[in-house]
Design brief:
The protein contains 26 helices and two strands. By secondary structure, it is an all-alpha fold.
Length: 539
């Protein structure tokens, strides 16, 4: 083995890989094949003679002769790779689980896998095909993990995000298999997400009652089993998200009933799939609810909603709530309570006054400023909502730069989840999210999680920033975290630096930012926490 390496190093000096790549690849293949033969015990007498000489110059000819006498490296079975790709990504292929698993084993057992470059290409092929073809690609996971040792503990800190996603898929698949036995109602809802969206108008009414349960399922999967949702139909998921958003902005009686049902379903904790509402209550109120749904549907058709933007890009942390503008402004406490309850139904003006007097005072200033305007009452209220949104955004940003490490860590995990979700669509979606640009329709669960985080910041007593002037946003990365992040991203240091400046391919930009947040989360104290503060707060 040592003689082969010495001979390879000697011959490599006479080859320029850039000007003569064919010769370089031929030399690599010859080296790999020679080492394979040595491991198999072939040509041991040549190797022994070569090692006994001890002169690297003298070993060049024996190695070349040994390789020339042996058959060349095996050819790659590209047809098997193409067939596997079609099995997974073409739903009409009709391939079964056993066929996909058997073909995966065949590709990984190909003698061409002895070639290092080919093995790395196949590893990338498996990783990308698994993530793109979920859940049809599930039969590929176990053979790939066994072949490439993705779950080895010594590689944990160097795993790229895509491999962590695949390992998470293993756990999520077992959850999905057991769901019909443990929570059959949620298994039926998950099956609905994999079917085409309903088209009949009666389905709009039929979606009202299971809407809160579907909302909980989507939020639960996003938080605990994120690899399941990329495997559902995108058009069906968008249909349900639109229905949930419509229910959230329904007229008052329907919205109150929905919140009552939502609290019963979501239960006191999120440690498991939400508890069931008592069937006798459901059957008792179903006729009344159906009548209210129809009335609310008719009333909401003519109601115009005013919405606040929700970019979620650091350092901006815009408050994600929407407000239906009333016809007239009332007193300050009433207007403030109506505004805050779009953020959290338990928030009131009195509660904010008790928990955060500084914020309460600033919100009152915003209300007085809007009240003295010359525009109509609806426009005045919209102005107040915009000002309140800015104050809440300021409080949240200040809190992310404060001493509440749990809030900072929770927001970092939440933001990373949003990046991973965007990446499942296209890398450009992820890069747009990092840059603060508008991305495709997202899960309503993201809005719910962000609302809860903002509410925590409000009730913590964090005051809004005194200086609202725009500042240049920048942060420095500690050397130890930088090294870890570069390893996780699988980028060269120069490419990593470009990606952090949002330059280069969208894939690199996304991987670099996810890897950096991962590194800070894994090593939070003290460098990681300071990095997260500078990334997300202080504005």
């Amino acid at each position: 083995m040592a003689a082969i390496r010495k001979a390879y190093a000697r011959l490599l000096k006479g080859i320029d890989p850039e000007s003569d790549p064919a010769a370089f690849l031929a030399l690599r293949e010859a080296r790999d094949w020679a080492m394979h033969l040595a491991e198999q015990g072939d040509g041991q007498h040549q190797l022994a003679a070569m090692e006994s000489d001890g002169d690297p110059v003298e070993t060049v000819a024996p190695v070349a002769e040994m390789v020339a006498e042996q058959p060349g490296p095996p050819e790659v079975d590209f047809e098997a790779l193409r067939q596997l790709h079609r099995y997974v990504l073409d739903p009409e292929s009709g391939a079964t689980w056993d066929e996909i698993a058997a073909l995966s084993e065949q590709v990984l057992a190909d003698p061409a896998m002895l070639n290092i470059d080919h093995s790395e290409n196949v590893e990338r092929f498996f990783a990308e095909t698994i993530t793109q073809g979920t859940p049809r690609s599930d039969p590929m996971i176990e053979p790939a993990i066994a072949r490439f040792r993705w779950n080895a503990s010594e590689t944990e800190l160097r795993r790229p995000p895509i491999v962590n996603w695949i390992l998470q898929r293993v756990e999520d698949r077992y959850f999905e298999i057991g769901l019909p036995n443990e929570r059959h109602a949620y298994a039926r809802l998950l099956a609905k997400l994999r079917r085409p969206p309903p088209r009949q108008w009666l389905s709009l009414v039929g979606a009202w009652w299971p809407g809160p349960r579907m909302e909980f399922l989507i939020a639960y999967l996003q938080a605990n089993h994120p690899t399941i949702l990329p495997g559902v139909r995108r058009d069906t998921l968008d249909w349900w998200l639109a229905r949930i958003e419509h229910q959230r902005n329904a007229v008052a009686p329907l919205r109150w009933i929905r919140e009552w049902r939502r609290r019963n379903i979501w239960g006191p904790s999120l440690t498991g799939i939400g508890r069931n509402v008592r069937r006798d209550v459901a059957f008792t109120y179903t006729p009344i609810l159906l009548g209210l749904i129809v009335m609310g549907r008719l009333a909401s058709c003519s109601q115009e909603q005013a919405r606040s933007p929700m970019p979620f890009a650091p350092p901006a942390t815009t408050t994600p709530f929407t407000v239906a503008a009333p016809s007239v402004m009332l007193d300050f406490k009433s207007d403030l309570t109506r505004t805050l309850q779009r953020l959290d139904v338990t928030l009131t003006a009195d509660r904010v006054l008790a928990a955060n007097p500084s914020l309460y005072k600033q919100l009152e200033v915003e209300w007085q400023s809007a009240r003295t305007g010359n525009q109509g009452s609806a426009a005045q209220f919209a102005q107040f909502v915009s000002g309140a949104n800015a104050q809440l955004d300021s409080v949240f940003s200040q809190a992310l730069h404060g001493s509440d490490e749990k809030l900072i860590m929770d927001y970092a995990k939440f933001y990373e989840s949003r990046l991973r979700w965007a990446e499942r669509g296209t890398p450009q979606d992820c890069a747009d999210l990092i840059a603060g640009r508008t991305v495709r329709s997202e899960l309503s669960s993201f809005s719910d999680i962000h609302r809860r985080l903002v509410t925590r910041a409000v009730l913590s007593g964090t005051p809004p920033a005194k200086d609202k002037a725009e500042k240049e946003w920048s942060f420095s990365i500690p050397p130890a975290l930088l090294r870890t992040a570069v390893q996780r991203s699988r980028l060269r240091p120069a490419d990593f630096e470009k990606a952090m400046r949002q330059q280069g391919p969208a894939t690199g930009i996304c991987n670099a930012r996810i890897a950096l947040i991962d590194s800070a989360i894994v090593n939070p104290k003290p460098e990681g926490m300071e990095l997260l503060r500078s990334m997300f707060g202080g504005h």
